[in-house]
Structure formats: C-alpha cells, structure tokens
Design brief:
This protein has about 260 residues and is mainly α. The chain has 11 helices and 2 strands; from the N terminus they run H-H-H-H-H-H-E-E-H-H-H-H-H. A two-stranded antiparallel ribbon has the order 1-2. The radius of gyration is 22 Å and the shape is globular.
C-alpha cells in the first residue's frame, strides 16, 4: 500500500514539474542541440550578439509581461517605437538647425521628448481603459493607427536623419569592445521589471488584479491606478526601444516597429 502511494506521489510530482518547467526544458534541449550541431554557438561573443539582436523586442517584452499579468494587452507598442524614433531625430534637427543648441546635446532633449511621448500614449490608453471600461485590445489597436499617423505627419513620410555620430553608440556600441550597449539596456529592463514584480507593493498588486480584479478591488487595491501604471510602463519601455532602434540605423522613420506588437 505504501509502495503504491509512493509511486503515485512520485508520478504527481513529476507531472507537476513537467507542467511547470516544460518551456524551460524545451529551451534547454534546443540549446543543447545547437551546442552539439553548431560549435560556434556557445561562445561569449555569439551570446552577446544574440542579446544585442533581441534587445529591441526584449525591452518591450518585459513591460508587456507586466501588462499581461495584470490582465490587459497593448497592441500599440510598435507604433510607439516609430514615434519615439521620429521625435528623437526631429527634435534634434529642429534645435540644432535653429541654432538653439548643438546637435550633440540636442539629441538628449529629443530622447526626453520621446520618453514623454511614450508616457502620454500609455497614460491615454490607461485612462480610456479605466474611464470608459473599453477592452485594451480595442483601445490599443486604435491607438496603433493614431500614433503611426502622428509619426508620418511629423516625419512627412520620410526618414529623419538629423542625429549626431556619437548617438550610434547607444544602439550599436560596445563596452570594452565586447559587451553590446543594447544588451545592457536589456539587462536594465529585466532588473527593473524583476524588482518591481517581486519586491514591491505594485508588483503584488499587479498579480492580484490579473488574478481576480473584483477580489483585488474588494481588498482595497486601487485597480484603476494599477492598470494605468502598467499601461504607462510598457509604453515608456517601447519608447526606449525606439531610441535603441533609431541609434542603430541613425534615423527615425514612421515605418519603424511594424509587426512588433505581434512579436512581443
């Protein structure tokens, strides 16, 4: 009887383990196969290059994780990439061409304006969601086209290339000629989201709202504030991704970010 119970408990434990860590096991298996079949795969330089290549979508993905855990979705992140890139390049050009400040320092103002734009987009999504109780799928889908429209108006449909040479370092530079700068952006985004979700009151509230919104409200959580916060957060990270992309290609374009809302 004891043997049967032990075997049953072992089977349940194994089943739970596989259910919980299935994706990690599959990913580990893929990595092992690549190590065996491609000798150059498991090298430091290649791993860092992978981090560099996934930085743009990865930064947004960490923010989108918070949004999805909170029970919402945001399809307008791709357009925010385009708008932040266009704003950064355009503001830099306007300030430098007007003689207000040199291009090398004007780009900082451009980046701040891009982050503010991301904040306002997220705030708009959050306020519409909480004020009118419209699903974020519909809100963000509409916002996607609105923001792309603004990007096209600001850039007049052409790439904006008024950026200083040093700006390329943000998206394509390397520390110590080894560590890609975009990989550091990715690491910072991961640390920030990890700390928020695991070590702060906001993180616990996001889990509570996503698990049972009504129960969270009855327990005293300001559900509306939580939803607005996560919608703002993902848009600010999307603006950061737009800055990285514009630094990599040294321009801002209204065509940036198309399809990213499905990749993250």
């Amino acid at each position: 009887m004891i043997d049967v119970k032990s075997k049953t408990d072992s089977g349940v434990t194994l089943s739970r383990f596989l259910k919980r860590y299935m994706m990690e096991l599959i990913l580990s298996l893929i990595v092992v196969v690549l190590i065996v079949t491609a000798p150059g795969f498991f090298t430091l330089r290649n791993i860092l290059n992978i981090f560099r290549n996934v930085a743009i979508t990865g930064v947004i993905s960490f923010g989108m994780t918070m949004v999805i855990i909170g029970g919402e979705i945001d399809l307008s992140v791709g357009s925010s990439i385009a708008l932040s890139a266009v704003i950064t390049a355009s503001v830099t050009g306007w300030l430098s061409q007007a003689g207000i400040m040199p291009m090398e320092s004007a780009v900082f103002v451009g980046m701040i304006c891009a982050l503010v734009a991301g904040f306002l987009i997220g705030l708009s999504n959050g306020l519409i969601r909480t004020r009118f109780n419209i699903p974020t799928f519909i809100i963000s889908l509409a916002m996607l086209y609105v923001v792309y429209g603004f990007s096209a108006i600001i850039s007049r449909g052409f790439p904006v290339t008024t950026l200083p040479l040093w700006y390329n370092w943000i998206g394509a530079g390397r520390f110590f000629n080894l560590i890609p700068v975009p990989a550091l952006w990715l690491l910072l985004a991961f640390i920030l989201v990890y700390v928020i979700m695991n070590m702060t009151k906001l993180g616990r509230e996001v889990y509570a709202v996503g698990g049972n919104e009504e129960a969270a409200r009855l327990s005293g959580i300001n559900v509306k504030a939580v939803k607005i916060t996560i919608m703002v957060f993902v848009q600010v990270l999307a603006a950061c991704s737009g800055i990285i992309l514009s630094a990599q290609v040294m321009s801002g374009s209204s065509t940036f970010g198309r399809g990213y809302e499905l990749e993250v």
